């Protein structure tokens, strides 16, 4: 089980992988919007998205858990 | 043959007791003399004070090997701890040997390598090795004196504890072997006793942590062989000292890749792309030697060759944190630029930057002074500097990446470049915030769009070229060629930044 964390402060612009979906290493899970940039947050390992901790529009701080991969 | 001499030589060369050799082997650690054999073209050619502390009998070479050998055909000085001898700890002769080989490196003006695997000071010998003029402090004093004069490389194979942790700290580059290398001022046991913290060594001072979080490590190697090969490769980009230039090698054109540079770079300034792919298309094939890959990945730093010439690349990575600069990335850039400037390595900036990060977290971390550090190092670098505006260059981001005001030899742009105080979205919000708020919700999108278009026209690239803000606009497919010609032309650059003792740096 791995926690995927926000690399920087911003708001959740788009959810790419929904709970239950299979993801590979480097696959985007969500895209944040920060500093007017799209910030992809990718999975660090292969697995299933067990839980998404955020919804589109949420503000997240650096280090906040975004998803759990199993 | 003198048999007494031969028997002592054999004993010393074999290091500590077999049980310590065995313990090292089980951790994937090589014997110090094997490391040196692999590091050098042949072997350590000259070794002095091999007999240090030989009257004792239990401390072969007093736990450190020092001498001179050749790497890539060039002379280098080395000190290498022997962890089979009292865990590589420092006695008075150990320290004296290290000081002497540093002094040799200083006199010969050749690189100094530190192969560290040491538990730290021998407390029992402290009066002889710690406080005096030629005590351990002198090692660090010498390192600081050598810094910028000759390349200093640290290969960390084991612990580097307490005061010893400053050896890597003063090196240009620190390669750490995953699983075995560590760096810390106080061990986990000490941390528990003194401050009550319970933590593992790996978590507090392990190789992964230092290479990705603290930034005290530069390169994470999976084993000793990889670390040694990295060091040999790294040194091939450097001259022996600050008086000379790196050696030029054969030019190897990059391979033809499926996507062209133009196809690689998205038109939408806000969408990410992978800067490594642009680098690959500009440099000689397989010539990228990255430094601090795992630390502050929003900024890429590494050595490469263009047309066979060493260059230092500083590139924003939009794929990580949007390419925004943070305190750590500013630090990373500052040290890298000092490294290149010290050894006559030209700098190439690849710019795609939304600016410095904003918000409480970074302000409290002192992003302003960290950013100032980066600007100082960039500004002071007198090697040839070329700034390529790949896409956006907003605000202080333009300045930090060698914008026109900082005397780059050239600031050139790709057709996708956009230079401004801030991006169109942010600017329209900033200037028309009140007006937008006063409008009916239905009218807002059209108004915002119109103002954004006006703004874009105002910062049009051809307008900036017409005002001579940038020196040239280059077709993406011509960029490598252009860089080759410019770096060749700027070779003879000879400037002194300013006259003074030294600046007062915003550290």
UniProtKB/TrEMBL annotation, chain A:
Keywords: Biotin. Residues 1-70 form the Lipoyl-binding domain. InterPro entries: Biotin_Carboxyl_Carrier/Decarb, Biotin_lipoyl, Single_hybrid_motif. It comes from the Bacteria. NCBIfam families: PRK05889.1, PRK08225.1. This is Acetyl-CoA carboxylase biotin carboxyl carrier protein subunit. The gene is accB.
UniProtKB/TrEMBL annotation, chain B:
Pfam families: Carboxyl_trans. One of its GO terms (molecular function) is methylcrotonoyl-CoA carboxylase activity. Signal peptide: none annotated. Residues 1-250 form the CoA carboxyltransferase N-terminal domain. GO terms for cellular component: methylcrotonoyl-CoA carboxylase complex. Residues 256-507 form the CoA carboxyltransferase C-terminal domain. GO terms for biological process: L-leucine catabolic process. Transmembrane segments: none annotated. InterPro entries: AcCoA_carboxyl_beta (IPR034733), ClpP/crotonase-like_dom_sf (IPR029045), COA_CT_C (IPR011763), COA_CT_N (IPR011762), MCCB/AccD1-like (IPR045190). This is Carboxylase YngE. It comes from Halobacillus andaensis.
């Amino acid at each position: 089980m791995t926690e995927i964390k926000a690399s920087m402060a911003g708001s959740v612009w788009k959810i790419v992988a929904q709970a239950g979906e299979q993801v590979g290493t480097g696959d985007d899970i969500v895209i944040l919007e920060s500093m007017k940039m799209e910030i992809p947050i990718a999975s660090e390992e292969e697995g299933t998205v067990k839980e998404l901790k955020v919804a589109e529009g949420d503000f997240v701080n650096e280090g906040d858990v975004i998803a759990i991969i199993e | 043959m003198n048999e007494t001499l031969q028997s002592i030589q054999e004993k010393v060369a074999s290091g500590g007791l077999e049980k310590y050799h065995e313990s090292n082997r089980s951790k994937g650690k090589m014997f110090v003399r094997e490391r040196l054999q692999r590091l050098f073209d042949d072997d350590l050619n000259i070794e002095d004070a091999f007999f240090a502390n030989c009257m004792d009998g239990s401390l072969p070479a007093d736990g450190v090997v020092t001498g001179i050998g050749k790497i890539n055909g060039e002379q280098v000085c080395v000190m290498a701890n022997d962890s089979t001898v009292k865990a590589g700890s420092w006695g008075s002769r150990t320290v004296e040997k290290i000081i002497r080989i540093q002094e040799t490196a200083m006199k010969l003006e050749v690189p100094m390598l530190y192969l560290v695997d040491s538990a730290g000071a021998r407390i029992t010998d402290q009066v002889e090795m710690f406080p005096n003029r030629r005590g351990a402090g002198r090692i660090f004093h010498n390192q600081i004196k050598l810094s910028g004069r000759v390349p200093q490389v640290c290969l960390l194979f084991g612990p580097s504890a307490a005061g010893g942790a400053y050896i890597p700290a003063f090196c240009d580059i620190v390669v750490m072997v995953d699983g075995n290398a560590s760096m810390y001022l106080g061990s986990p046991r000490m941390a528990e006793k003194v401050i009550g913290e319970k933590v593992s060594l790996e978590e507090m001072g392990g190789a992964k942590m230092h290479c990705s979080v603290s930034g005290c490590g530069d390169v994470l190697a999976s084993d000793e062989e990889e670390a040694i090969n990295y060091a040999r490769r790294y040194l091939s980009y450097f001259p022996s000292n600050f008086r000379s230039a790196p050696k030029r090698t054969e030019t190897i054109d990059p391979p033809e890749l499926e996507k062209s540079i133009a196809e690689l770079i998205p038109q939408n300034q806000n969408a990410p792309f992978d800067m490594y792919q642009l680098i690959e298309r500009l440099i000689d094939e397989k010539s990228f030697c990255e430094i601090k890959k795992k630390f502050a990945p929003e900024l890429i730093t590494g050595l490469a060759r263009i047309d066979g010439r060493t260059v230092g690349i500083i590139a924003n990575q939009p794929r990580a944190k949007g390419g925004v600069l943070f305190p750590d990335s500013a630090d990373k850039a500052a040290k890298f630029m000092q490294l290149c400037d010290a050894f006559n390595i030209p700098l190439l900036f690849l710019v795609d930057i939304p600016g410095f990060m904003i918000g409480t977290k970074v302000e409290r971390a002192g992003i302003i002074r960290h950013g100032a550090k980066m600007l100082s190092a960039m500004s002071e670098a007198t090697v040839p500097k070329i700034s390529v505006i790949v896409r956006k260059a907003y605000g202080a981001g333009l300045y930090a990446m060698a914008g026109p005001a900082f005397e780059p030899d050239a600031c050139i742009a790709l057709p996708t470049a956009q230079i401004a105080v801030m991006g169109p979205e942010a600017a329209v919000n900033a200037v028309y915030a009140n007006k937008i708020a006063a409008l009916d919700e239905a009218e807002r999108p059209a108004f915002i769009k119109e103002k954004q278009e006006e703004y874009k026209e105002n910062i049009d690239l051809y307008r900036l070229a017409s005002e001579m803000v940038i020196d040239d606009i280059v077709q993406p497919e011509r960029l490598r060629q252009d860089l080759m010609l410019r770096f060749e032309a700027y070779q003879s650059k000879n400037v002194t930044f300013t006259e003074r003792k030294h600046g007062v740096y915003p550290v």
